[in-house]
Design goal:
Elements: H1 21-55, H2 59-87, H3 89-109, H4 113-141, H5 146-178, H6 182-185, H7 187-201, H8 206-209, H9 227-250, H10 255-277, H11 285-288, H12 291-321, H13 326-332, H14 334-338, H15 340-354, H16 357-373, H17 387-410, H18 417-441, H19 448-474, H20 488-494
Length: 504
């Protein structure tokens, strides 16, 4: 399927776009990147106790092993999106698969916590190249058509849900049979298959296969990489997350903790000032003036912060407080992770019929109820009592996240799809890193009593944040698309009323 065209890009195809076998192959190919990035969230949590015993890592080092991946993923996501918009999403997606595979090999060979943390950060760099560009490829393959994109995003997120569901079980089985290192080595054949499919099934974009311009053609200046902006974003997010992780073991009075917060604030302020002044910013601040776009991004922060943080605490709870083995904990996680599959697919149909706001509101409220049901859980609570919560959390999130992603892609011009996707997922991964850091700090030294107490605080905070997320979705403008993504007749009707400055 060739998604390129010699004419100016239009928001809608001349003829209705169907979910063809060629499109299905594109969806399957770009889903591989999402699968491996999500697999390394749940599968690593199951291995934490074994890693701690083998490498002599305390809770703070375990947090860094989880957050080194999430943090690098977050801080480099915008760079991955900008590079994809400039050099081609296909190239960056393929490069991300290669980096992720090599980093996974390094994780499997790591001899101490420091090396494992560095290798996990490299995994995050590969994931940052894959994720935003997988969505950009998906958006381009659907020709930005709203209904088709909603279905495709639903299948894309469902693929990630399968990996999330399989992660704890696969992790438990691999650890029992081959040890914890095998959970990283399993990524190698997955990445190899994804790379082969990318080179075979994903067509080159216009910028990748275009012929050289004529001598008298106007010179098109490439988008700036905004290196200073990228460095400031890396410094701000790394300093903030590191300060949160080390707050509990070192104390707020320690220079590394308060210094980290000060550095994060200064770098963040400098980033905003710089992005407002440079000619071609990595993060166009005008995007954030779009109320729908901003609300969807904040919604994603709430969702990831609560889920990533809770999964980390639950992994410690099941193994430290309840004494389960990694395999037993993985089996216990099945409802919590497996519930994403059906709800992700259902979300695509719900968005096509009802728009994005209702699935986001309903999903946030359902997931929030699931967190609330975990507040009174103790070490001796029967596992069956956790079932309702473990089904409601993924059920609600699975309904809301595809709708949120569709909202973001629809609210920007197609040429900015990679950057918009990168910004959304940067915010989400940063939220996840903060969730692990903050909720992990609530477990103290990791004793059974402290883990249970931390779980109570974690789930209460999560329920409140999901209520905030529902309010954010409620206040969004109802299914407003960027002018370039709306049909021509709708553009003509809405053009007099649209604030063009919001889409500069």
């Amino acid at each position: 399927m060739n998604t390129s065209s010699t004419s100016a890009p239009s928001s809608q195809p001349d003829h209705p776009v169907r979910f063809t076998p060629a499109l299905a192959r594109v969806v399957a190919t770009v889903s591989v990147g999402f699968v491996v990035t999500q697999l390394d969230v749940t599968i690593v949590n199951i291995a934490l106790v074994r890693i701690a015993a083998d490498l002599h890592a305390n809770v703070a080092r375990l947090q860094w092993i989880v957050d080194a991946y999430t943090l690098a993923f977050a801080v480099l996501m915008l760079s991955g999106g900008v590079l994809g918009d400039r050099y081609g999403a296909r190239r960056m997606y393929a490069a991300g698969l290669v980096v992720f595979a090599l980093a996974s090999l390094a994780c499997g060979l790591a001899a101490n916590p420091a090396l494992l943390i560095v290798a996990r950060a490299l995994q995050g760099a590969g994931a940052a190249a894959m994720l935003p560009n997988s969505l950009a490829l998906l958006n381009e393959a659907c020709r930005h058509e709203r209904t088709l994109r909603a279905r495709a995003v639903g299948f894309w997120t469902a693929a990630g849900a399968i990996s999330i569901a399989a992660g704890p079980i696969a992790g438990g089985l691999l650890i029992a049979a081959f040890g914890w290192r095998s959970i990283f080595l399993v990524n190698l054949p997955l990445c190899a298959a994804g790379l082969a499919a990318t080179l075979t099934w994903i067509p080159a974009s216009r910028r990748e296969d275009a012929a050289p311009a004529a001598a008298d053609a106007p010179v098109q200046r490439p988008r700036s990489l905004d290196v200073r902006g990228q460095l400031l974003a890396v410094v701000a997010l790394t300093a903030f997350t590191g300060a949160v992780i080390e707050w509990r073991p070192l104390g707020l009075a320690h220079w590394a903790v308060w210094g980290g917060f000060v550095l994060a604030f200064a770098a963040g302020a400098a980033f905003v000032v710089l992005e407002a002044r440079v000619e071609a910013p990595m993060l166009p601040l005008a995007m954030l003036r779009n109320r729908t776009f901003s609300a969807a991004v904040l919604f994603g922060v709430c969702v990831n912060l609560t889920y990533y943080g809770t999964v980390f605490v639950l992994a410690l709870f099941l193994q430290h407080a309840r004494g389960q083995s990694p395999l037993q904990a993985g089996l216990t996680f099945i409802p919590l992770t497996g519930g994403f599959l059906l709800s992700n697919i259902a979300s695509g149909h719900a968005v096509a019929r009802y728009g994005t706001r209702l699935p986001m509101i309903g999903g946030a409220l359902v997931a929030g109820l699931g967190y609330a049901l975990l507040i009174p859980v103790g070490a001796n609570t029967p596992l069956v009592a956790l079932l309702a919560a473990f089904l409601l959390i993924p059920g609600g999130m699975g309904l809301a996240v595809p709708a949120m992603t569709t909202t973001v892609l629809a609210s920007v011009e197609p040429a900015r799809a990679g950057t918009a996707s990168a910004l959304l997922n940067t915010a989400r991964q940063a939220g996840g890193a903060v969730g692990v850091a903050a909720f992990g700090a609530l477990t103290g030294s990791g004793s059974a009593a402290q883990v249970v107490s931390g779980l109570h605080a974690d789930t209460a905070i999560s329920a409140a944040l999901l209520l905030v997320a529902a309010c954010l979705a409620w206040n969004m403008r109802a299914d407003v698309a960027h002018p370039a993504q709306a049909p021509a007749d709708v553009q003509r009707m809405k053009a007099p009323r649209r604030d063009k400055r919001a889409y500069e």
